Amino acid sequence: MRAETEQDYVEFVTHQANALCRTAYLLCGDWRRAEDATQEALIRLYRVWGRIQRKGAVGAYARKVVVSTTLDALRRKSSQEVVGGDDYFVNETERTDPLGVLEDRLVITKALAELPPRQRACVVLRYFDELSVEETAAALDCRPGTVKSQTLRALEKLRTHPALAELSDLAVRG
Amino acid sequence: MTTELKTLLGQAADRPATFTPDVADLVAAGRHRTRVRRAVISGATAATTATAVIAVLLVGHLGRTAPQPATIAQPKMVTDLCAKSDDFFRTANDDAWRREVVSTWTDKVVEVTDLDGAITVRRSPDGSQYAYCVAGVPINGRPLGGFGATLLNVGIVTRPYQIQRYWSMACGDEPVDRDDRSTLCMGVRYSYAGRVPEGVTRIAFSGLGQHADATIKDGYWVHRVYTDDIRNGTTDPIYITMYNDSGKQVFKERY
């Protein structure tokens, strides 16, 4: 890779790594796994950087690689490790946070954990990364119709989730 | 709902520490992966090319039209076919070492010839290495080897007990017109070569209704067996039996 091209890569990593890591966290629910997946994705991105940069779709491709790397890691986990119920989606306790924020985090991460990976990815990409249906489909390597149906099912499940429903009630009252 | 969901997701993904990976490490890892991938792709490409070449050779070998029998006499002698087989190297197997064998390894250790061709064991100019060379007389107006040449196979004899076998299309000992494209030859000529193991004084061939001894000279042996139908080998297979100087059988194997 040429020096100036590599410098572009370095700048991209410097500015986008944290955002990609946050997406990965919402997909897997664990910061350490999210950081690992993000690093792996960035290494994979390096190999194709020149080609992707010429196409002008670096951000979209990076997000696609992060999503696939994170979901792949979850799949590997299911076959290699014994995962125990609620501990699967571990949320780090940060005692300095306000109690309300902490509760909200627990609620949403638990609700996300109960979604199938593809539905979870649709929710995260559509409502956290604010991607369009087409961009989400490109990131997940599927058709826009699939994104719509998966998102719809995910939202239905989230609406009926007891903890989230309670939170919504509180939010309405507040 | 979706607005609230976005807020919740944003809160859930917030944390005091920012993820800042070591970019130098990432670049180093990326470079390493790129190098490894290139090496793997190069290897795979080489393997694919080799497979394709083998496939082309096989197709060329199997796809030849069978020649028709004729009554015109064949050449009386087959003289140094390997040395005349330059076309083979240019088209199918242009290998510097093989060209060197054909052009400079002129010291023939042992050779048998017949109307279908020859097998030779040749010694390197410095006397340290030996190679076998199978050559064939053209059939149906076309040279054997699949790519317009008379040389069929060549390789080095390295192991003490190596037995090299190569089969090729043949017309047999009956006189036929090899230039006649209507000539029909369905036969197969099996060529064998190897190093004579220590203590062995006689190497006998049996099978395909024939019994004969291999030609031995200077520690190497060669032999050729003909059948008019390759399927005969399944009912009457070729066995190689080796005997020591007291006539005791020390080796017998189907080849």
Automatic annotation (TrEMBL), chain A:
GO biological process: DNA-templated transcription initiation
Domain RNA polymerase sigma-70 region, chain residue ranges per copy: 13-78
GO molecular function, one term: sigma factor activity
SUPFAM superfamilies: Sigma2 domain of RNA polymerase sigma factors, Sigma3 and sigma4 domains of RNA polymerase sigma factors
TM spans (from-to): none
Higher taxonomy: Bacteria, Bacillati, Actinomycetota, Actinomycetes, Propionibacteriales
Name this protein carries in UniProt: RNA polymerase sigma (SigV) subunit
UniProt KW Ribonucleoprotein keyword: no
Gene3D superfamilies: 1.10.1740.10, Winged helix-like DNA-binding domain superfamily/Winged helix DNA-binding domain
Family the UniProt entry places it in: Belongs to the sigma-70 factor family. ECF subfamily.
Stretches assigned to the RNA polymerase sigma factor 70 region 4 type domain: 107-158
Swiss-Prot/TrEMBL keywords: DNA-binding, Sigma factor, Transcription, Transcription regulation
Cross-referenced Pfam families: Sigma70_r2, Sigma70_r4_2
From TrEMBL, chain B:
Keywords from the named record: Membrane, Transmembrane, Transmembrane helix
Segments crossing the lipid bilayer: 39-62
Protein name: Uncharacterized protein
Organism: Kribbella rubisoli
